[in-house]
């Protein structure tokens, strides 16, 4: 079988789809990605069709159109970037290269509009893959509506997925947020593991892992977070290659560059992050409490949700990160609650099991 994964060219969109793509490749299927410029370096070892702008280029174009609103926050900018800029002028090429690959199945990330177009034109079944907690239905509907002109040019109608893969577990959602639709397939969250194996430095505990992920570029805020955590007495692993911190805390800080979370989480006692869904779910799968300072996209929603559930301390001022880390470590309830969630997550089906479910449900003919 030939499976095409269509995804926005940003790590927060690409990485959640990798477990299923890896499972498909392990099962002997032909796998390729359809995305924009820059995506190939995120998925080494896979065939990648780069069609259209990188996410940075799409954001810049969106900002030009909307007087500075680049789509980093939910709203009109996000609607224009995902539904307009990502589609306009690139539909023909996306359909052409996808047709040459000849997929039997298209899997697209929840805000990607190109994958559904390809599935519609090539008349192949489609699966939607969520990448975060529930996004507002109004936002997703507006993105889909903005892309309708792309479908109209092909005389196509956006298809309905026969299944929805969801890595955001019910245990983290209110009852009103839970999706009980028969097409939903829960997927066990797992930390990103692709990348070089690194020998980590030995540090006295407690150890805080500080990461803003790959989407947030706020060096001053990161330095303030790290400094505050180190001043509170924790050793710090920070996922950048270099960081300017005061001499008074330098001995407790190790800048280690990009290392897969699967290698880092076992040595961490607490995770300080921007609240991206991938980092949050990976930390919880490992039973680690969080401190979250959100910046963009779904991060404020994740910060509020995790704080409400007793899994994280949410902050606004990076200078208070040290105090928040001490709270998360000293109050045993945070660790116990995180461990309870980790137990629930471990019961969910893994990517290999989910792939078998999807192929078993796939429409024939």
TrEMBL record:
<dbReference type="Pfam" id="PF06722">
    <property type="entry name" value="EryCIII-like_C"/>
</dbReference>
<dbReference type="GO" id="GO:0016758">
    <property type="term" value="F:hexosyltransferase activity"/>
</dbReference>
<dbReference type="InterPro" id="IPR010610">
    <property type="entry name" value="EryCIII-like_C"/>
</dbReference>
<protein>
    <recommendedName>
        <fullName>Erythromycin biosynthesis protein CIII-like C-terminal domain-containing protein</fullName>
    </recommendedName>
</protein>
<dbReference type="InterPro" id="IPR050426">
    <property type="entry name" value="Glycosyltransferase_28"/>
</dbReference>
<dbReference type="GO" id="GO:0017000">
    <property type="term" value="P:antibiotic biosynthetic process"/>
</dbReference>
<dbReference type="GO" id="GO:0008194">
    <property type="term" value="F:UDP-glycosyltransferase activity"/>
</dbReference>
<dbReference type="InterPro" id="IPR002213">
    <property type="entry name" value="UDP_glucos_trans"/>
</dbReference>
<feature type="domain" description="Erythromycin biosynthesis protein CIII-like C-terminal">
    <location>
        <begin position="225"/>
        <end position="358"/>
    </location>
</feature>
């Amino acid at each position: 079988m030939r499976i095409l994964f269509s995804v926005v060219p940003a790590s927060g969109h690409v990485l959640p789809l990798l477990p299923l793509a890896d499972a498909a490749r392990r099962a002997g299927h032909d796998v390729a990605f359809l995305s924009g410029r820059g995506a190939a370096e995120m998925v080494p070892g896979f065939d990648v069709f780069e069609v259209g702008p990188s996410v940075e280029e799409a954001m810049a174009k969106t900002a030009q159109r909307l007087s500075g609103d680049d789509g980093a926050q939910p709203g009109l900018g996000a609607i224009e970037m995902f539904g307009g800029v990502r589609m306009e002028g690139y539909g023909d090429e996306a359909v052409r290269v996808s047709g040459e690959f000849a997929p039997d199945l298209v899997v697209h990330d929840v805000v990607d509009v190109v994958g559904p177009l390809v599935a519609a034109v090539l008349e192949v079944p489609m699966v939607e893959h969520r990448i975060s907690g529930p996004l507002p239905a109004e936002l997703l509907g507006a993105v889909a509506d903005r892309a309708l002109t792309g479908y109209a040019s092909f005389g196509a109608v956006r298809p309905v997925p026969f299944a929805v893969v969801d890595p955001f577990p019910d245990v983290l959602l209110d009852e009103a947020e839970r999706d009980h639709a028969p097409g939903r397939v829960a997927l066990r969250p797992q930390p990103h593991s692709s990348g070089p194996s690194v020998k980590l430095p030995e540090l006295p505990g407690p150890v805080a892992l500080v990461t803003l992920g790959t989407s947030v570029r706020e060096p001053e805020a990161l330095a303030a977070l790290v400094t505050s955590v180190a001043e509170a007495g924790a050793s710090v692993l920070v996922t950048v290659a270099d960081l300017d911190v005061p001499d008074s805390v330098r001995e407790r800080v190790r800048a280690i560059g990009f290392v897969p979370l699967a290698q880092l989480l076992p040595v961490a006692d607490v995770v300080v992050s921007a609240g991206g869904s991938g980092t949050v779910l990976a930390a919880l799968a490992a039973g680690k409490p969080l401190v979250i300072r959100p910046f963009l996209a779904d991060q404020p929603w994740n910060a509020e949700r995790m704080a409400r559930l007793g899994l994280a301390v949410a902050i606004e001022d990076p200078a208070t990160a040290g105090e928040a880390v001490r709270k998360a470590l000293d109050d045993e309830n945070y660790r116990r609650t995180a461990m309870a969630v980790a137990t629930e997550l471990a019961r969910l089906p893994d990517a290999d099991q989910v792939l078998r479910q999807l192929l078993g449900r796939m429409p024939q003919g």
